[in-house]
Amino acid sequence: MRKKTGIAILGSTGSIGKSSLDVITSMNEHGENYEVTFLVTNKNVDLLYQQVRKYNPLGVVIIDESRANQFRSYLNGEKLKVYSGEEGLMEVMAGGEFDVLISGLVGFAGLRPTLKALEAGKTVALANKETMVVAGEIVNETARRHNAKVLPVDSEHSAILQCFSGEGKESVAKLILTASGGPFLNHTRKQLENVTVEEALNHPNWRMGNKITIDSATLMNKGLEVIEAHYLFDLPADRIEIVVHPQSIIHSMVEFVDGSIKAQLGMPDMKIPIQYALTYPQRVRSKYQRVDFGKISQLTFMKPDTDKFTLVKSAYEALRAGGTATAILNAANEAAVDLFLRGKIRFLQIAEYVKGALDSIESKSAPAIEEIFEADRAARQFVYAETERV
Ligand SMILES: NC(=O)c1ccc[n+]([C@@H]2O[C@H](COP(=O)([O-])OP(=O)(O)OC[C@H]3O[C@@H](n4cnc5c(N)ncnc54)[C@H](OP(=O)(O)O)[C@@H]3O)[C@@H](O)[C@H]2O)c1
Q: Which of 207, 208, 226, 269 to mutate to test the pocket of ligand 1 (most atoms within 8 A of CB)?
């Protein structure tokens, strides 16, 4: 029997985490040999306990200390290592009892554990795009130094990786990232003024966690993905384009120097790119839904309206500025999305606050990791302080 591949999942109770566990089950049903060794969650210990009973990992990490105590009270003689807090997480990441880390937690919190796993020489299947956005150079350098790999889980970057297969980098003219356009694609700017949290959370094609769903509604998700693509594929901002494709069947494209374009297509289901990151460069069978061209009447494309969705412009500006600008962009966005989800600010204010943070906080070039943390803190402080002022 083939050696087991041990998987640790950061954010096992989230949308990516749950899909990853389904992928592991499905691959094992198709004769593969994966085992879950660690599950990491913030506070959803009830679901974590169900996952433990089903997947029988070596251990778990619960970031929230009080929930960790609650979780311990559920245990009934199970042989399980239970870690808690950031320290526990770092210990597990450095301990190396896994072959692949699926980095599926949300936000800046993913940076430290992802770097730790790379330092341990592990392969990281990266869903947590914020890590690449805030510290792309450091992530790449850490991976290089420790002979570790970063493989994209984001469907757009997975598509590009698949289009790159068999091609030399010198053949690539540009990347074309597709965007669904989100729930407000056809809204006027005036209509955007009063959209509700509920409307913003109602994505037409994808079911995802709240933060990325709001990012999809503002189109910031695509801005973050442009930055992620820059660091993953080493191409400058002016060779990474966005095209709105509301059906989400083409997951992204690569144009080559001879004018040919390769596209990767599939149903909008994150299990497909998650599986590809785990089996790369091979493919294994899956039972996931297939594209039925008889049922798709059209595939359409349009330019993104960046006067309406101005965060796309801010993301390109931050990428061009470099240094800590992308960390400022990301932190201001995380804080503003949090405020919007809590009903404290309106939808269009998310973009205003992010621009405000970028305009007000000085960016540092070639930052050390501490400077990235400092930029993150400053941008969050800026946004929360702005709300208190109004
Ligand atoms: N969802 C998608 O389809 C999709 C697609 C492409 C990329 N992504 C990216 O994947 C990442 C995860 O997205 P998601 O939609 O899966 O988010 P989600 O559903 O909100 O799940 C987030 C997960 O992270 C855990 N978590 C939150 N803060 C944490 C912390 N400080 N330390 C450890 N764990 C923490 C949560 O635990 P609790 O449940 O205990 O709170 C939960 O398990 C994001 O970066 C997103 O941009 C997602």
A: 208
Report whether residue 133 contacts ligand 1, using a CB cutoff of 6 Å: no
Question: pLDDT at residue 1 above 70?
Answer: no
58, 64, 66, 68 alpha-carbon torsion, rounded to 10°: -10
3-state SS class at 102: strand
What's the whole-model pTM score? 0.97
DSSP for 296-348 reads: ------B---TTTSTHHHHHHHHHHH-TTHHHHHHHHHHHHHHHHHTTSS-HH
The Cα–Cα gap between 248 and 240 comes to 18
Q: Rounded to whole angstroms, how far apart are CA atoms 156 and 129?
A: 11
Strand partners for 101? 8, 124
Cα of 364 to ligand 1 centre, how many Å?
A: 28
Q: Which atom of ligand 1 is nearest to the CA of 107?
A: 45
Pick the CATH number of 5-152 from 3.40.50.2300, 3.40.50.150, 1.10.540.10, 3.40.50.720: 3.40.50.720
Count of residues for the chain?
390
DSSP assigned state of 363: P
Record the tokens describing residue 36, joined without a space.
């879950």
**pLDDT per residue over 310-360, tens digit each?**
999 999 999 999 999 999 999 999 999 999 999 999 999 999 999 999 999
CATH of domain 186-195+305-390: 1.10.1740.10
Q: Whose CA is nearest to atom 44 of ligand 1?
A: 106
* DSSP-based three-state secondary structure for 159: helix
HSE of 171, CA atoms in CB hemisphere, 13 A: 12
The span from the CA of 336 to the CA of 355, in Å, is 11
